[in-house]
């Protein structure tokens, strides 16, 4: 399962439902885009040292998904499909959707707009 920023943050905050969904996944992928969004929030937090330690541990355990040429091709597909349908979503979320499509993995997210992406399975908690 790939995690969105809101899911990663919920797990960091020990939200019981998010933690349960996280633990049930056979594998976890964290997009580099999600890591960037998460670190942006952490850098503004009073709990920065705690969150920095937590994410360091998480990154040793789970797969960090980087953007590749294949991801870029999937991004272009997803973005064009959404444009043609008149249902855009935020740019960073298109990259996340592209990684889901590339790796054939569902997405743990509370953001319903991912449901606009054909073939993407969103898991809520």
Account of the 3D structure:
With 125 residues, the protein is mainly α. It has a single domain, classed as 5'-nuclease (Rossmann fold, 3-Layer(aba) Sandwich), CATH 3.40.50.1010. It is built from six helices and five strands, in the order E-H-H-E-H-H-E-H-H-E-E. The strands form two sheets. Strands 1-4-5 form a three-stranded parallel beta sheet. Strands 2-3 form a two-stranded parallel ribbon. It is globular, with a radius of gyration of 14 Å. The mean pLDDT is 96.
What kind of oligomer do you see? single chain
Radius of gyration: 14 Å
Largest sheet: 3 strands, parallel
| Shape assignment | globular
- Portion in strands: 5-15%
The first-to-last residue Cα distance is 13 Å
Mean pLDDT: 96
**What series of H and E elements makes up the topology?**
EHHEHHEHHEE
- List the domain count as a whole number: 1
Strand arrangement, largest sheet? Answer: 1-4-5
> Which CATH class applies here?
Alpha Beta
Number of helices: 6
């Amino acid at each position: 399962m790939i995690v969105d920023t809101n899911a990663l943050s919920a797990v960091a905050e020990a939200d019981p439902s998010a933690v349960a969904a996280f633990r049930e996944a056979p594998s976890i992928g964290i997009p580099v885009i999600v890591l960037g969004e998460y670190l942006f929030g952490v850098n503004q937090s009073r709990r920065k040292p705690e969150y920095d330690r937590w994410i360091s541990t998480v990154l040793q355990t789970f797969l960090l998904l980087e953007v590749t040429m294949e991801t870029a091709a999937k991004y272009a597909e997803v973005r064009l499909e959404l444009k043609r349908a008149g249902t855009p979503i935020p740019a960073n979320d298109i990259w996340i959707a592209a990684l889901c499509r590339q790796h054939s993995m569902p997405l743990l997210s509370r953001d319903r707009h991912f449901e606009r992406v054909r073939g993407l399975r969103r898991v809520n908690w």
